[in-house]
Amino acid sequence: MKNLPEWLAWCERLHPQAIELGLERVKAVANRLAIRFNTPVITVAGTNGKGSTCAMLEAIALQAGYRTGVYTSPHLIHFEERCRIHGEIVKPEALLPHFERVEAARQGVTLTYFEFTTLAILSLMAASALDVAILEVGLGGRLDAVNIIDADCAVITSIALDHMEYLGPDRESIGREKAGILRTGKPAIVSDPVPPDSVLDRGKEIGADLWLLGRDFNFSGDKQQWAWAGRGRRYAGLAYPALRGANQLVNAAGVLAALESLRERLPITAQAVRNGLAMVELPGRFQIVPGQPALVLDVAHNPHSAAALAANLDAMGFYPTTHAVFGAMADKDLASMFKTMGPLVDRWYFTDLPTPRAESGASLLARWRSQETRKDASASIHADPMAALTAAVAAADPADRIVVFGSFYTVGGVLKDGLPRLQAKHL
User: Fold this and answer.
1) Which of 111, 258, 259, 427 could disulfide-link to 115, CB 3.0 to 4.6 Å?
2) What does pTM read for this prediction?
């Protein structure tokens, strides 16, 4: 394989399944690779808020002068977005020797795309002289490939119903899987305000140092600023995080608890906290693109994140018409998402997505029609996200707003296929 696209194509062909949970195979290869981190590792699991949590941890640590490494998934446009070293997305060519290392160490072990690429990125990060490694769990926790690395601090964000065919039918089952990242004697930050008992039970069972929102740390705020208090430390008069949305305060509270729990190994100044929260960026999380009509991009792809998006849209104020570009995977709870977003959306633009796991635009339209009760709402179907957005822009008045949401493929498709060009022409 001569380049990254060839390696990724190889990884896709290697295993008959996209997902095979379990750590035996990936651990065997990781042991041969001798992947070790001699710096604090923060592992982040949860249903929603993982990416935002990782981005805030990274931004604050960078402002404190640390060399950071971050692994997140999935990506929006390019695969290499999954790894950032010292705040910069890695170059594709930097990944190639690590793909070669994994292939050499595999010795016939069959790895999924996610397992192979995770090992390659962990190999790169371990060789990058980091001060702190921040790892986002891909799916669940207990059996996810990221969990081969022992966390010095585990963060569990909000837990909601998603990926139930792999993780179980309810929050207790899903929480049990997420809690698999906890380690004996190590800080376990639970930023979900109402965590499942299974998370707390697992933490107590193994002797993790549980930090619970409302018990070990809390936050408060008014319209201008917010404050945080934890074990022995307080921050007052904080500006709101640059990531928009009410849900980001819960994520930020967990971030500050994680950093506080590691302060002996990773001291952070109040100024680094302020600067990091003010400067954090993460495309596709209630991202508002300047111009007219207003354009909002959000990777809300399950009922919990759709509810957060609906609340954030409500808080934006009045718009005559809201246009929504929507594409999603077939395994999502679409009925709940339509029920949540339906009252806010006047015109739907359903889109096909370039993956066999996606629901077709035509099927989304049929699902929506079967439950929509508003007589004034309309809908259309489109071949790809950019075609759907182009149609929405053509139909929208300057005072309207357009919301692009759903799968990473939906938001990524808009960002990939020329949002700046469309902005210059229409917005």
Assistant:
1) 111
2) 0.91
The residues, ordered by sequence, that sit 6+ positions from 349 with a Cβ below 8 Å of its Cβ are: 323, 324, 325, 326, 379, 380, 381, 382, 388, 389, 391, 392
Q: Give yes or no: residues 368 and 406 share one domain.
A: yes
* Same domain (yes/no): 222, 204: yes
Structure-block tokens of residue 151: 């966390």
DSSP string, 252-310: HHHHHHHHHHTTTTS---HHHHHHHHHH---TTSSEEEPSSSEEEEE---SHHHHHHHH
What does the alpha-carbon distance between residue 137 and residue 115 come to, in Å, rounded to a whole number?
Answer: 12
What are the angstrom distances between the C-alpha of 92 and each of 67, 80, 103, 145?
A: 20, 6, 17, 21
Q: How far, rounded to the nearest angstrom, does the alpha carbon of residue 76 sit from its chain's CA centroid?
A: 10
Q: Is the peptide bond before 74 cis (omega within 30 degrees of 0)?
A: yes
At residue 427 the predicted structure's pLDDT band, cuts being 50, 70 and 90, is very low
Cα–Cα nearest to 109, from 34, 27, 188, 175: 27
The mean pLDDT of 270-282, rounded to a whole number, is 95
- The continuous run of DSSP H or E covering 154 comes out as strand 153-156
Q: Do both 323 and 248 map to the same domain? A: no
Structure tokens at 398: 């300057």
Question: How large is the C-alpha radius of gyration of the chain?
Answer: 21
Give pLDDT tens digits for 180-215.
999 999 999 999 999 999 999 999 999 999 999 999
| Residues 233 and 87 reside in one and the same domain | yes
CB 229 within 8 Å of CB 217: yes
Q: What is the mean pLDDT of residues 33-61?
A: 95
| End residue of a domain, out of 251, 279, 307 | 279
Angle, in degrees to the nearest 10, between helices 113-126 and 24-33: 30
User: Any residues with CB less than 8 A from the CB of 57 and at least 6 apart, and which?
Assistant: 42, 44, 70, 132, 134, 255, 258, 259
- Same-domain check for residues 244 and 317: no
The C-alpha atoms of residue 120 and residue 96 are separated, in whole angstroms, by: 8
Q: Quote the domain boundaries for residue 212.
A: 4-279
Whole-angstrom distance, CA of residue 172 vs CA of residue 191: 16
257 to each of 87, 167, 209, 251, 273, how far by Cα in Å?
22, 27, 12, 10, 12
CATH code of residue 111: 3.40.1190.10
Phi, psi dihedral angles at 301 (to 5 degrees): -135, 20
In the prediction, which pLDDT does 107 show? 93
